[in-house]
Amino acid sequence: MNDKIAKVRTYAKENMSKDRSGHGFDHIQRVANMVLQLMGTEPANGEIALTAAYLHDVFDDKIASDPDAKRDEVKAKLTEFGFDQAEINQVMDIINHMSFSDNIEHKQSLSKEGQIVQDADRLDAIGAIGIVRAFQYGGAHGRTIYDPNIKPRDLTTKAAYRNAVDDTTINHFYEKLFKIASDLNTDAAKQIGKKRTQYMRDFVTEFKQEWDQ
After folding, report:
1. Residue 164: pLDDT band with limits 50, 70, 90
2. Domains in the chain: how many in total?
3. What range defines the domain where residue 129 resides?
4. What's the CATH code of the domain at 25?
5. What's the CA gap between 200 and 126, in Å, rounded?
6. How many other CB atoms are found less than 10 A from the CB of residue 177?
7. At residue 10, does pLDDT exceed 70?
8. CA 145 to chain centroid
9. What confidence tens digit (pLDDT) does each residue in 51-78 have?
10. What pLDDT shows up at residue 104?
11. Phi, psi values for residue 144, rounded to 5°
């Protein structure tokens, strides 16, 4: 880990360690680790990819109280850490276009580094850890675990995705998590995603069987 990435990691840890919605620094570090794993078969600029991985949730509008101010702070920090403007632009372009919600209405164009970071972030939303994070986020936001009378929504806009009124955590699997694997970019991520998706499907099947007993 070079000095610039070490500074980025420390800054991300300072900002995300207290999050209890499933986007804490443990999530950030897993995404960074997965970036390194995917780059084993997908050559890319590791410095750009890791920087975006560490910072991708710092000014997310689900987390930051003032996303615009936090975005400006991140840019200033990157300059302070020794990144030039072209590198900062690459990092910000990845973060600004990689989220699930920003790709609902039309798929955003991402660099190879962006595709890797997006895959790494999405892989952490599925599988065993994805299940835990889904319930952690739901609990943090007072979401109902399950109600068979509330059906999954057809999410065709970002506004619909953000409007979680009368939503349930189990519905979130149908609305988002089961769909993630089909939208992954890299072959390596797709292989991992297929296995993790099946694990989630088995879990939801078992959950509903137990619910109805």
Report:
1. low
2. 1
3. 3-211
4. 1.10.3210.50
5. 7
6. 23
7. yes
8. 21
9. 999 999 999 888 888 999 999 999 999 9
10. 75
11. -65, 140
